Every structure is written in structure tokens, then in C-alpha cells.
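Workshop exercise sheet. Pairs work together: one partner reads the sequence aloud, the other fills in the structure field after running the prediction. Swap roles for the next sheet.
Pair: D.N. / O.F.
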Amino acid sequence: MPRPSLGLLVVTLATLLLLAAFFAGSETALMSINRYRLRHRALAGHRGARLAEALLKHPDRLIGLILLLSTVVNVLTPTLVGIIAFRIGGDFLVAAGVVALTFVLLIFCEVAPKTFAALHPERLALPAAYIYTALLTVLYPFVWATNLLANGTLRLLGVPQHQASHALSNEELRTVVAEAGAIIPQRGRQMLVSILDLEKATVEDIMVPRTEIIGVDVDDEWDKVIDQLRQSQHTRLPVYEGEIDRIIGVLHMKNVVHALARGRIERATLIQIARDREPYFAPAGTTLSTQLQNFQRNKRRLAFVVDEYGDIQGLVTLEDILEEIVGEFTTDPATMMHRDVHPERDGSFVVNASATIRALNRSMRWTLPTDGPKTLNGLIIEFLETIPDVGTTLKVAGYMVEVLQTAENAVKTVRIRPPSRPGEPSTPKARAPG
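Structure field:
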């Protein structure tokens, strides 16, 4: 049998080196390709993406196929180099050929193709999917036998055979949104992060406290009730008898506005209208995402937050939850500051202590602690462990807080000075009235 020509051996060697580079690069490309972008392209009808997705559903088969082919190439290549080197220069050139082959394999068949594949995975992975799909069909018996032995070895070593999940947690999604950069506008990123945060916050975090609920007490003098209805700025008002826990229902102003205009509404009529809309209650620990779904399912816009004993602790509305996502509902830049915050000329802020900490942090870009009390009043009382006197000053998370007004065993108004920015004079130490 005649020996193959030297030219044929060189062409064969070049082909094997190209195959080695292809196998190395395509393996890296397929394993590093963005699974979500791949899924998007597959759903858009890209055949290469669909084939690549199908291959990656069984990574053991794909890796087995690539390594099987790579092993054949890596065995044949040094043998062929030895034959070519021996024909050209004898035994001495064989050693030089092995050294040269090592350099070529490392640079041109491993590092270079894998680097290119890591930088541009789609450019290599999608065309390679066509080739590997065909090869897997032809070589499936060999791949099956290889995987059988490999998986059996892993089972003997106690290695789990479950495929890693590519589902993202909330924190991982937050990272993805933060890394989106110019792809998603800053405002859009803030909204997406706020949606993810709905799982962390509860209705208790954003509710209007019980003492701040504005409602109609039908036990009041009737003229006072009528004046309250006429001057109300709210479209929905709780109606109760004596105290908020004895709630009757929710009054929609559109149901009484015409009667008010004619001056023909009576106490019994008002109570009947309120009873037509029974109050809706939400447990204090309900997450905002769950409550948003509950509002949608029950076609409600307002809920009374109750504790474990059924006592009303506050009130939450659909608008309150939506504001957690999109911010305050206003188009006037001059009114973007929280309604309970009033700036002072010296850079401090006079704040209503009944405001929720989450709302203040969101509107003022502050970082007051939210892992404890829900309102500023509660934060101050917990920090001091007593009802403070007017003039008491404390420092919470770098914020200087001065108590300006107290009443009914609660802090009503405070002055807050945020932490100094770099380059600004530092804030004085906390003090208590002497």
C-alpha cells in the first residue's frame, strides 16, 4: 500500500488543528451564551437558537460529544506531527515538532478560540449548533456509552445529577437591572427595582396610621358631618360610629354629592349608603405584591389594616402601593417633595413625625432605618425608649433629629438635618435638653 504524500499529511494536520480550535471555541461559546437572550431568539424563530437551546437542555450529551471528538483529534494530531517531522528531518526534528505542536495547540487551538468565543458567544454558538445537532444524531451510540460510564462514575462518587437551575432570585434580578445601564432608562430601572421590593414590604410599612385616618363619625353633630362631607378632599371616606373600630362602611363621595347639593341627605340615608360598601380588611403582615393582587381580584381600592386581634391599625390604598413603584402622583416638580416635609433655609427639614419612614426615604432619598418601626414617631420612641421632651436631639443613622412638638404621648413634629455631604461642615453631636 503506497504511503500518503507529504502534502496530504500537511493538509490533514491543518484540518485537525482547525477542528481542535472549533471544538474548543464552540464548547466555550455554547456554555457561556446568555440563556435568556438565546431563549428570546428561539421564540423569535431563529433555527440556530432553537437547536442550541435543545442541545443545552442535555449538557451531558453535548459535552460528551465535544470531548469525544476532541479526544480523537488530540490523539491523531501528535501522531501526524511525528510522521511529518520524521519524514522531513528524522528523529531530531520529531522532538522539535512536539514542542512546536504544543505551542500551536495552546495558542491557536485553545486560548485564541476560547477567548473569541467568550467575547462573542452567539457568533460561534449558533452556527455550531447546526453541526453538533447533526453529529449527535450520527454518533449518538458512542455519546450514550460515554455518558453512561461518566454518569456512573459520578454516582459512585456521590455527585448529584440534577442540572443547575438558571432561574434568577430577586437579588439576582436586582443585579441584572442595575447592570442594564443605558439599555433601560434610570427611571425605568428604579421602577423595576421597586416592583421587586414589593415582596419585602408589607401594608403596615406604608399604611396611614390609625390616628391619621380621616373618616366620618355619624355620632357627631349632623351639621358638623355635613360640613365635613362638603369640605372633604377625598373621594372615599370611612364611616364609623364613635371610633374607627366600629366601622360601618366606606362612603364614595359620588353617591352623596348630588344629595349634598340639594341639601336633602339625612343621617339614616348616609349610613345606608355607607353600608352598601362593606369595609375591606387586610392583615398587617400582607406583602405589597399580595395586596396589589387582592385589590385587583376584589375590585377594591382601599383596605383597613388590622392586627392579630382584629383591631384597625391603619389604612392602605391602591394609590399607596402604586406610589411605591412610580413615586408620588404629581407632575409639578415644585411639589415632588413629600407632603409631610417642609424645607428650612439652614438646610434642615421640618417633618411630620407620623409620616412613614419608607415614604420619607423614597421621596427625600434618605436612608433612615426601615427594619424596625414604620413611622418616624415610632423610630424616635424606640431609639429613646421613652416619650421625649420638646428640644430633645438625637442622632439616628447619621441624621440629627430634634423634637419640636409632642402631644398625646407621641412625637408630632421634628426637625431633621441629613448627614453632611463631602466638603460640607459636619453636623454637631446629639444632645438632650438640660
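Discussion prompt: The chain has a mean pLDDT of 84. What would you look at next?
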